[in-house]
Design goal:
Number of helices: 14
Order of helices and strands: HHHHHHHHHHHHHH
Structural class: mainly alpha
Oligomer: single chain
Number of strands: 0
Distance between the termini: 54 Å
Shape: globular
Helix content: 55-70%
């Protein structure tokens, strides 16, 4: 079983100071301490730690990479094992980068079972718990048969908080890309804040998957 000291030794041996400075600037939160390990190296390390989650969960979350690895290793679990630890892991999320990469593939095969979690996280008062609910929808629920659930979550999810607003905009843009008419009708409801709606339109218009004519329609909307 790996120890915390052994893990830190591995992480610091992989550190890249220029990347640490760059990533710290991107995170925009000095309270998040970054060692500076690049994502491909973290992903490789996570695969090697697949059987070490019990040990990892006992480690302090002093560094961005340690929490990242906890989430990444948990994301490799079968669904029944994953749901036993997901609440604790979601509670550790404190930045957009860890939140956005935490996309456990097992959810795709158990969407109905995971919906209560999504709704519970969406109603949470913690910023990155709410963002996780929205990014989970983005990763796994923008599909035929789940659109009504996604839109209902978006109706409940709007927030003036930047990181939640951005996730809601990102999700709305994905709906527009895949289900344009339904997404446009949803925007017209006015359930999103003006800032979130504008961000959604901007992100959708950045996509190569939407025609120029549709982009013109979106830009002309009063949102």
């Amino acid at each position: 079983m790996i120890t915390y000291e052994e893990l830190l030794s591995q992480l610091f041996s992989l550190a890249d100071e220029s990347f640490r400075a760059f990533h710290t600037k991107l995170l925009k939160d000095d309270a998040v301490h970054v060692i500076g390990v690049r994502t491909p190296a973290l992903r490789k390390l996570a695969k090697g730690l697949k059987g070490e989650l019990d040990a990892l969960l006992t480690f302090p979350d002093d560094y961005y990479e340690v929490t990242w690895l906890k989430c990444a290793v948990a994301a490799l679990l079968p669904y029944t094992q994953f749901v036993a630890v997901v609440d604790a892991l979601v509670g550790l999320l404190d930045n957009w980068a860890t939140c956005d990469m935490f996309a456990p593939a097992c959810i795709a095969r158990h969407r109905d079972l995971f919906k209560p979690n999504v709704l519970r996280y969406l109603a949470d008062d913690r910023v990155f718990v709410r963002r996780f609910a929205l990014t989970t929808l983005l990763h796994f629920y923008v599909v035929e048969g789940e659109l009504a659930f996604v839109l209902e979550c978006l109706r409940q999810a709007d927030s003036e908080e930047y990181y939640v607003s951005m996730a809601a905009a990102w999700l709305t843009a994905e709906v527009l890309v895949k289900f344009y008419d339904a997404g446009k009708a949803f925007l017209a409801e006015g359930k999103l804040s003006h800032a979130t709606a504008r961000r959604a339109v901007r992100k959708a218009c950045e996509s190569l998957r939407i025609s120029d004519a549709k982009k013109a329609e979106l830009r002309a909307m009063k949102v």
